[in-house]
Amino acid sequence: GRNITVAAVEGGFELRVEHAGTIETAALPDSDESVMLQDVAFIRQNDRIIAERGETRVRIAQLERYEGRQ
User: Fold this and answer.
1) CA–CA separation, 11 and 36 (whole Å)
2) Distance separating alpha carbons of residues 36 and 61, to the nearest angstrom
3) Global confidence as pTM
4) pLDDT at position 70, please?
5) Between 17 and which of 38, 39, 58, 61 could a Cys-Cys bridge form, CB atoms 3.0 to 4.6 Å apart?
6) How far apart are CA 68 and CA 17, in angstroms?
7) What's the maximum distance between 2 C-alpha atoms anywhere in the chain?
8) How confident is the model at residue 69 (pLDDT cuts 50, 70, 90)?
9) pLDDT, tens digit, 9 for 90 and up, residues 14-61
10) Which letter does DSSP use for residue 68 in this model?
């Protein structure tokens, strides 16, 4: 399997995918954009990040807003 992490980094967040002893990283994609890591497509749809591989789609992250914070 693959281990998917959304990690906090300076200036925002990044995606990390570990598989078969290797790790690939990328910034979160912009709205309506995607990025491919370890044969998994990460698609940004509005405030959600969807992981897609074959026929499987899973929401892995969603922007949260807190009162008083941007």
Assistant:
1) 21
2) 16
3) 0.87
4) 58
5) 38
6) 33
7) 42
8) low
9) 999 999 999 999 999 998 999 999 999 999 999 999 999 999 999 999
10) T
CB neighbour burial string for 54-66, b if at least 16 within 10 angstroms, e if fewer? eeeeeeebeeeee
> How far is 53 from 36, CA to CA, in rounded Å?
10
Q: What angle do CA 30, 34, 12 make, to 5 degrees?
A: 40
| Structure-token pair, residue 15 | 């995606």
Give the position of tokens 């910034």.
Answer: 27
Which residues touch 16 (CB under 8 Å, ≥6 apart)? 4, 5, 6, 7, 23, 24, 25, 37
Sheet holding 12-19, edge to edge: 3-9, 12-19, 22-27
Rg of the chain in Å (alpha carbons): 13
Written as one letter, the residue type at 65 is: R
